[in-house]
Amino acid sequence: MIIKVLLVLTMLSLVKVAFSATPQELLKGYEAQSGKASSAHGEQFFNAKHGKEWSCASCHENPPNHDTKHIVTGKLIKPLSPNSFPERFTDQAKVEKWFKRNCNDVLSRECSAQEKADLLSWLMTVK
Length: 127
Ligand code: HEC
Hints:
By secondary structure, the protein is mainly α. The protein has a single domain, classed as Cytochrome c-like domain (Cytochrome Bc1 Complex, Chain D, domain 2), CATH 1.10.760. Helix content is 54%, strand content 3%. It contains six helices and two strands. Helix 2 runs antiparallel to helix 6 and helix 3 packs across helix 6. Heme C (HEC) binds at residues 54, 56, 58-60, 70-72, 77-78, 80, 88-89, 94-95, 98-99, 102-103, 105-106, 119.
């Protein structure tokens, strides 16, 4: 019984290690799938509308260095910049989940690895 519990705990901690990351590591991963990140492109992308009603800034505001409100529900959103809220971009599963959801809301498609690299490299410069 104890062995089983220990086994499960070990597995859980391995999963945690597998999914925890730093913004730098995530950025490297996106760049490896595309090309070198451009933070200037990332900033433009974040502020622009892409044929629909919202931009990323509709909920995260520009600069995304303070608490904001969800444009529909009014719920509090913590700052998106990892410099303002260090939990950001440290959990790969969470990052991918929200990229997928938010890119779909803003662009009606997922963001490419290049777009994610650009966005993240810019967010890492936002103080
Ligand atoms: C309609 C509101 C809304 C829009 C528009 C929006 N987001 Fe978000 N975003 C959220 C919410 C809500 C969360 C999750 C709550 C939280 O983490 O504070 C979130 C979380 C995220 C996260 C998770 C980061 C982490 O590590 O915690 C990323 C990445 C993200 N958004 C990127 C984007 C990008 C890129 C765009 C534009 C393509 C965008 N968002 C547009 C509401 C929005």
